[in-house]
Amino acid sequence: MISWRKHYRQTLIAIGLLLSTSASIYGQDGDPKNGEKLFKANCTACHALDKQVVGPPLKGVVERVKTEGGKDTEWLHKWIKNNKEVRDSGDKYANEIFEKYNKTEMQLFPNLSDKDIDDILAYTTNPPAPEEPKKAEGTATATDAAQAAPANNTTTSVVIISLLAIAALLVWILIKLRQLVKLGQSEDLAGLNETRVKSFSEIYAKYHYVGKGLIAILALLATYGIWNWIMWIGVYKGYKPEQPIYFSHKIHAGEQKIDCQLCHSSAKYGKVSEIPSMNVCMNCHRTISEYGANDYMEPGKDKAFYDGEIQKIYAATGWDPEKQQYTGKTQPVEWTRIHNMPDFVYFNHSQHVVAGEQAIINSFNKKNPNNKIDVVCKACHGKIDTMNVVQMANDFTMGWCIECHRTTEVDMNNGYNKEYFKNLHDKLKKQYPKDGGKITVDAIGGLECGKCHY
C-alpha cells in the first residue's frame, strides 16, 4: 500500500512537471493581449507574425526553436534580452540564425522582464483574433445596402410621381396659354393692338436715355469681369490634384507626428523644398508593409486600398518584400506639382524657415488667435497635418506676399539682426514709429522689387 501511494505521488509530480514544462515551452503562461501591445511596441520594426521583414516571422517561434535547435523558452529569454551575448558564448543555433538573416544585429531588450517576454511568446503562439475594423464613414456593407433597398425604391416612386405631376401641370399651363392667345385675337382687343409699339427701334427711341444708361452699366460690369478674370490667372487656391501614389499628410504629419523636415530636408537650408525621393519613404516602409491603424482611414477607403499604395512604393523602388532585397528594377513616379512659383519670382525657403521662423509664427498667431500654428510651414501651406490630400491653402499672389511683409514684425533682438542693423536700428525706429517703433519686414527692404524679381 505504501509503495503504491509513493508511486502514485511520484506519478502526479511527474505529470505536474510535464504540464508546467509544456505550458512554458508553448508560451501559454503569458497574457497574449498584453503580449500584442509589447510586440507592437518593441518588435514590429523588424518582425511580423506571418512573414519575413528584416527578421524571420515570429508566429510559432517557441515551437520552431524547439524543433530546429532543441531550445526552450529559457533560451528565448536570453536571446531576446541579449542575443549578442548568446552568440558570443558559441551557441551554434544562435550563430546559424545570425548567418541566415544576413548578419543583421538584433536590438537588445534588457528592459523587458521575464513576464513581458512570456506575454510576447504567448502572443506569437496564440495571437488573439483581430478586431473587426471600424467601418469608415461613407462606406457601406452588403447588409446596409440590402436594408437601404426598400428606402431607395420608395424614393424612386416619389420621384416618378413628382415628375408626372409636373408634366400634368405643364399641360394645363399650355392649355391656358392657348386660351389666352385666342382671347387676344378677339375683336375687342383689335383696337388696343393698333396702339402698341411694333418694333425695338420704337422702344429705344421712346426710352433711349434708359437704354444708354443700361448699356453703360453693362460695359462697366463687363470691364470689371474681364479685369477680375485677368487678375486671377495663375491663382489656384484650393487646387488638390490626385497623385500617382496616395500619401496622407494627416496620417504621417498629423497622427504620427513626423516632422515636415524629415522628408522635406532642403526646406530649412535650401532655396527649394524638394519632393523627397522614394528612398526616404523606404526608411520606414521597408518594415511597414501594410496598413494597421483603422482609425486613421479616410472615408471611402479601406485597408486594402492603403496596402495597395504601399505596394506602389515597392514597385517604384524595386523592393522585393518577400526576399527583403532590391531587385534593381525601378519605376519613376510622376508626381503632380502643386506649389510652383513663376520663373520671374525669387523665393528662398531657408530665408523664411530659419531667419523668419519665429517672426512669421508670432505674426500669424497674432492675426489668427483662434487658428494658431506651431510650425512655420503652416503659415503658407495651411494646416498640412490635417490634410489627407494636399491642396493650395493660400492665393500666393504678389499682394498676398506684400501684405505679409507689411504686417510681420522683424525680431531686431536676435543675434544676426542686432549686429547687421546695428547702425540702422535707431534710425529705423524713428522712421517707422508705428506700433511703438516695431519694425516690420517692409522697413528693411521687404518691398524692394529686386528682392523677389531679378
TrEMBL record:
Higher taxonomy: Bacteria, Pseudomonadati, Bacteroidota, Flavobacteriia, Flavobacteriales
Name of the protein in question: Cytochrome c2
Residue span(s) of domain Cytochrome c: 30-128
Pfam families: Cytochrom_C (PF00034)
Keyword terms: Heme, Iron, Membrane, Metal-binding, Signal, Transmembrane, Transmembrane helix
Gene3D superfamilies for this protein: Cytochrome c-like domain (1.10.760.10), Cytochrome C3 (3.90.10.10)
GO molecular function, one term: metal ion binding
Membrane-traversing stretches: 157-175, 214-235
Stored SUPFAM superfamilies: Cytochrome c (SSF46626), Multiheme cytochromes (SSF48695)
Signal peptide interval: 1-25
Feature: compositional bias, Low complexity: 139-148
Keyword Cell division among UniProt keywords: no
Organism: Chryseobacterium arachidis
Region described as Disordered: spans on this chain: 125-148
Superkingdom per UniProt: Bacteria
CDD domains for the chain: Cytochrom_C3
Keyword Lyase attached: no
